[in-house]
Design a protein that fits this description.
mainly alpha, 3-stranded antiparallel sheet, 19 helices, binds glutamic acid, elongated, 9% strand
């Protein structure tokens, strides 16, 4: 069974990059009839917050990405790393038993000096293996005397981690570039590197799809996986999403939390469609707004290698398309839910909504653009012909935009009026606006009675 996971750290909000990772994991699992898991990687106790976790879940639900197991679904064991200590303890013991790890007593000061030295020489930062040669009896004695070491994985001499990344191709990391890294901190807590390797194994994760900033972590996690003799998952590292100036997408370079897009009125299917275009191109047959259809067309070997650029103009394009897809009728319903004063007009709203969608591709904008329907404008100057028009409109049947348009045109002609002298004052009186929806639609939505009222208000 194919199993993927999205494993956010609840240290902040869900952003574009994370949402794309979640979506790709979801689509891949669904495309293979597999399972999609949600795990909360909260090994960083200081920075993890429950509020962030709830917000993450809410954002993912809003995006429509349902998971088969996660912190909110009852199960035998927790899907929060902070609550899975027993498993890490168990596997730490195993690592100790097979001599894959050793205790390290190096002080923060020593490590800081080491880092300084390495960076001044332009070398990659890594542990120099100082405590590796400590005789076991001495380590034992120091621990018994109350010293608390961290534990490091002892990478075999000359060892190298190689793996074939689905997106990036063959990768190779000699042990020397990694150094013996920490798997358990000196307060007894597991590091992210270790906890996630254990969890991916215990949860039966077959495919790890995540941002390419994790490539160095993958090499280290594979070192643990190989040492334990576990089956390796397949790794697919998706290129990082960049800002318009091709920098890492962050707060200062235009990354916006998903929640903010939701609050601005973006539709979940618009955001999803946009996210799929970051590093992937759905097949021509796929419906970009339908998750099942996207899943059917998804494949990880078609994930692009080059970094995509986050562009809100593209997102806006998908928003327009998604709104058009929902269509006037469905959006009219939403408008009524948002603003009850649209209710009496609901049946006649659809064509107006369809007309202003391009200009106002958000519900709130639609609501504002059409608020003249329930909010009578302050009366402006009245033309002598308006009373007659109101009488004609009141008697008009059938009440359709086409018939209304016919009446307006023949009325104008009969009155000997030019287009501008007729339509402009009429629009101003009916809507209070200089421009907008075609007048026949306005008249249609307002209804004969209301038009007559507005035409005779002065
Ligand atoms: N918790 C990590 C993060 O939020 C992701 C871990 C993973 O995908 O393995 O970046």
């Amino acid at each position: 069974m194919i199993r993927t996971r999205f494993a956010p750290s609840p240290t902040g909000e869900l952003h574009i990059g994370g949402a794309r990772t979640a979506l790709f994991n979801y689509l891949f699992a669904r495309s293979m009839g597999g399972q999609f898991l949600l795990r909360i990687d909260d090994t960083d106790a200081e920075r993890s917050r429950r509020e962030h976790e709830s917000q993450l879940l809410e954002d993912l639900r809003w995006l429509g990405l349902t998971w088969d197991a996660g912190p909110d679904i009852p199960s035998e064991s927790s899907f929060r790393q902070s609550e899975r200590g027993e498993f890490y303890e168990q596997w730490m013991n195993r690592l100790r038993e097979v001599g894959a790890v050793y205790p390290c007593f190096c002080t923060e000061e020593r490590l800081a000096a080491l880092r300084e030295e390495q960076s001044s020489r332009g070398e990659p930062l890594r542990y120099d293996g100082c405590c590796r040669s400590l005789p076991p009896q001495e380590a034992q004695r120091r621990m018994e005397a109350g010293e608390r070491p961290c534990w490091r994985l002892a990478l075999p001499e000359g060892y190298s981690v190689s793996f074939d990344d689905v997106v990036r191709g063959p990768q190779s990391f000699p042990a020397g570039t990694m150094g013996d890294f920490v798997v358990q901190r000196n307060d007894g807590s597991p590091t992210y590197l270790f906890a996630s390797a254990v969890d991916d194994y215990l949860m039966g994760i077959t495919h790890v799809i995540r941002g390419d900033e994790h490539v160095p972590n993958t090499a280290r996690q594979l070192a643990i996986i190989d040492r334990m003799g576990w089956l390796r998952p397949v790794f697919a590292h998706i290129p990082m999403v960049l800002s318009a100036d091709r920098r890492k997408l962050g707060k200062r370079t235009g990354s916006t939390p998903i929640r903010k897009y939701r609050e601005r009125g973006f539709l979940p299917e618009a955001l999803r469609a946009y996210l799929t275009t970051l590093s992937w191109t759905p097949g021509a047959e796929a419906d970009p707004f339908d998750l099942a259809s996207l899943a059917a067309s998804f494949s990880i070997d078609r994930i692009a290698q080059s970094s995509p650029v986050h562009d809100e103009k593209h997102l806006l394009y998908w928003q327009r398309e998604a709104m058009k897809r929902r269509g006037g009728k469905a959006l009219a319903r939403e408008l009524v839910l948002m603003e009850p004063r649209f209710e009496p007009l609901e049946e006649r709203l659809a064509p107006l909504v369809d007309d202003v969608l391009d200009e106002a591709p958000f519900l709130l904008e639609l609501s504002r653009a059409l608020s003249f329907l329930w909010k009578r404008p302050a009366p402006k100057s009245r033309e002598p012909w308006m009373q007659l028009l109101s009488t004609e409109l009141k008697g008009l049947t059938p009440w359709t935009p086409e018939v209304i348009e016919g009446l307006l045109r023949s009325f104008m002609k009969n009155q000997g009026l030019k287009g501008r002298d007729f339509f402009h004052p009429l629009r101003l009186l009916l809507t209070g606006l200089e421009s907008g929806v075609p007048l026949p639609l306005v008249v249609f939505a307002l209804g004969g009675e209301e038009c007559a009222e507005r035409l005779n208000l002065l």
